[in-house]
Every structure is written in C-alpha cells, then in structure tokens.
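Researcher: Please translate sequence to structure tokens.
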Amino acid sequence: MALFKELTHDFRHLIERERLSHAYLFFGESLALERELAHSIGCFLETGEWQEALKPLVDEWVIDAKLPEFQGIETVRSLASWLWQKPIRSSRRTLIICQADQLTTQAENAILKIVEEPPEHGLLILTLRDTASLLPALVSRFQKVYFSDRVSPDYSVAQKIVQPFLRAGSRDRSALLKELLDTPDRFQEFVDAMIIYLYEDRLTSYAVLRDLLYRQSLIEQLNVNRRLQLEAVLLRI
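Model: Translation complete:
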C-alpha cells in the first residue's frame, strides 16, 4: 500500500538526512504513481523543490524498458556509464527505468552488476507491476516500495477496525482472520486498515509493516494461501 503523501515525506526526510539508498524498486498496481514519485525524487535532489522543474533536469535520466529504443544490455551499459559520472547540479545522478518487467535477462544481469557495487553518487529506481518478473538475485538488492490504487481509511478509522484484532489472543486472532477471509470486502478493508495503523507508528513497527506489505503483494500477485501469509505476520504483533 503506497501512502503517497507519507512516502513523499519519508523520501524527503531520507534525502535531507543523507540516508537515501542507492537502489529502489517501486512495484504494484499504480505505475503512474511510481513514476511520479521517482521523478519527484530526481527533481528534489537537483532543484530542492518537490515539483516539476522549470528546466530539463541534467542529472536525471528516465527511460522506458518497453520502448524500441531500449535495446537491452547495450543500453543498460550506456546507462551504467552515465550513472557512474559525477553529477553536475545534484547530489545524485538519478536513473529511472520504467516498466522494468520488460528487461531481458542479460539486461537484468547488467543492472545486477550496478547494484552490487553501486556508484557513490548514483540512484537507481526501477518501476514495474510484479517483482516476480525479475531475477530474485536482482530483487534482493533493492529497497522495495509497494504501490496500490485503493483508497485507504484514515488513521482514526483504521484504529477502530484493527483494535478488536489486536486485543484478541492468538487463537482468537486466527479465528478472526478466517472469518475475514470468508468476506473479501471486509478482508481487504482490514488489511488496508492494518497497514495504515502500522504506518502511523512506522519507526517502531517498521519490520512488521515491511513484512505485511511484502506478503500483501504476494497475495495480490500469486496464488498463495492468504491465511498463512497473514498469520505469519499478524500473530506476532
């Protein structure tokens, strides 16, 4: 679940604290939001403004892996060479590869070499729908952010939805999850509310939130046992 305003705040915070990672993988339902956030990061790094720059950015390169001009490994090598160069106006050179699920295996391996020894002043962002389309070794090298188009409840509403579950014991929690899974609309409302609830306290709940987001993406993308995926996270809160 991508909370766009909160993600904007978090990435600004990371940049200002100089704690930005070298590689991010934006994935999920909303490719438009993924691209918007990635470009906003590039703008902020170069101009200090979280909005569209008045002039073309010199330290950002956005390329769509689905377009004919993206020619696989040779293009990736050119991008890697560009990424290794020292930025002109920004603190980082930002390379954004959209629809990265269209990358060839050779191109993925070339990108893997980049993230194994990332450029000191480089930032690489991949956007795509499904992480399962990429090599596991490549996915493991990226910080992952999941995006969704769904409208989520605000914190006060989310708190009311999840409190009965949090107050219950392990056995009762299992029963509640089973009941929710039998009602798809209530199940999705509960999961969205739990993400909002954990996100509010993300400094102390970060590990659980990250695990829940990951398992939520598995549930949406793959044929996995939803109950087992959620129990693995929610029974240990």
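Researcher: Any highlights?
Model: The CA atoms of residues 66 and 94 lie 19 Å apart.
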